[in-house]
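Let us work through a complete example step by step.
Step 1: write down the sequence.
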Amino acid sequence: MSNRNSSDTPHEDSPQAGRKPDQIAYTVRGTPDGKEYWNRVGAMWMHKDGRGAELILDSVPVDGRITLREQRDQRMQEYQDERAAQQQVNNGRAPDHGRER
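Step 2: predict the structure and record it as tokens.
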């Protein structure tokens, strides 16, 4: 049996109470060329008494390393807008089938 509250009676500190997360959980993967890719894997809410936090993960990174960062609405919106623009460009081009032989 779990110690978690049932979903039909959310605790006031739980994400179901409608609060924005205090921090976002990411996994950061480096590439050989020095680039880093930040992938969101969850979010964290501080308890109102300031003595703990609730971390909810949507996925778990393979290496087990999680980076927590403050949520910045403007920065996140810019990132999401940039990703959406890249996806539109990528969806509009012909598929790449590798080098011609």
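Step 3: interpret the result. The beta strands are 23-30, 36-46, 53-57, 67-70.
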